[in-house]
Each structure stands twice: as structure tokens, then as C-alpha cells.
């Protein structure tokens, strides 16, 4: 099944690339293939829709991750345009007092991208979604959780 999995990170602009690479590092840990693309819901909506259509034609299990700062319409746009899961993971920003996150959280009815704030969490949620149909990823998630528990126990004993 792993050969049939694909994560597509869609960036609102090139400035979001560093954040995508952080997510990519975590996806690599789980051996999940990914692609990074750029398409803006505000500046190039037709192109963004074209990208979604291209990926929908593939015979793959796809998760889209929308990575857009400032006013993030991208996650909602992608989610409204596809039957595949969409995860918002906007880059961290201290601008606007952090209120720009609201554009990733408030969605109209019928549009439901998940929103996570950390790169590793986006990769973990993606892995769990794909693990629903991939036994190999299920094993990797269980091992990941086991390692977390062992670290907690080790830290506890060290106190």
C-alpha cells in the first residue's frame, strides 16, 4: 500500500517552503512520499484547482497539506475542491498578534480541513490518516507511540 500513498503539500507562496521542508522531514521518518507545489487560492485559483484535478486523476491515496501564511484561504479552497483529506498547517508567525490563524480555523459549512500548528503534528496526522488503509504505517505509528512512552518513562526515572 505504501507505494500508493502520496502527500501533496501545496504552498501559498515560495516563502512557505521552509515550513514545508520541516513537514517533509517528519514524513520522511515514516517513509511517506511527498511532493511540494505552489498554488495560491487568492492569486491563482484556477491553477490551484487544476493541480487538485491532476492529483485526483492519479490512482493514489492522497492527503493534501495546505501551507499558507497571512490570510489562508488555501486550505478551505482545497478542501472544497477534493474528496481527499486536507490539513491546514500554516507557518508560524508572530505577526498580527497571531490572529492570522483564524483564517485557518473558521470555515464555511461543508468545508472541513483539519488544522494543526506544528510541522511534526501535520506529518503525524497525515500518517495516521494513511495508516487507516496501510498496515505498514499502522506498525510505524505504534512503534512511534511506544518510543514516546519509553522516553517519558526514562525521563521520569531520571528525576
UniProtKB/TrEMBL annotation:
<comment type="function">
    <text>Catalyzes the conversion of N5-carboxyaminoimidazole ribonucleotide (N5-CAIR) to 4-carboxy-5-aminoimidazole ribonucleotide (CAIR).</text>
</comment>
<feature type="binding site">
    <location>
        <position position="13"/>
    </location>
    <ligand>
        <name>substrate</name>
    </ligand>
</feature>
<feature type="binding site">
    <location>
        <position position="16"/>
    </location>
    <ligand>
        <name>substrate</name>
    </ligand>
</feature>
<dbReference type="InterPro" id="IPR000031">
    <property type="entry name" value="PurE_dom"/>
</dbReference>
<comment type="similarity">
    <text>Belongs to the AIR carboxylase family.</text>
</comment>
<dbReference type="GO" id="GO:0006189">
    <property type="term" value="P:'de novo' IMP biosynthetic process"/>
</dbReference>
<dbReference type="Pfam" id="PF00731">
    <property type="entry name" value="AIRC"/>
</dbReference>
<feature type="binding site">
    <location>
        <position position="43"/>
    </location>
    <ligand>
        <name>substrate</name>
    </ligand>
</feature>
<comment type="pathway">
    <text>Purine metabolism; IMP biosynthesis via de novo pathway; 5-amino-1-(5-phospho-D-ribosyl)imidazole-4-carboxylate from 5-amino-1-(5-phospho-D-ribosyl)imidazole (N5-CAIR route): step 2/2.</text>
</comment>
<keyword id="KW-0658">Purine biosynthesis</keyword>
<dbReference type="InterPro" id="IPR024694">
    <property type="entry name" value="PurE_prokaryotes"/>
</dbReference>
<protein>
    <recommendedName>
        <fullName>N5-carboxyaminoimidazole ribonucleotide mutase</fullName>
        <ecNumber>5.4.99.18</ecNumber>
    </recommendedName>
</protein>
<feature type="domain" description="PurE">
    <location>
        <begin position="5"/>
        <end position="152"/>
    </location>
</feature>
<dbReference type="GO" id="GO:0034023">
    <property type="term" value="F:5-(carboxyamino)imidazole ribonucleotide mutase activity"/>
</dbReference>
<keyword id="KW-0413">Isomerase</keyword>
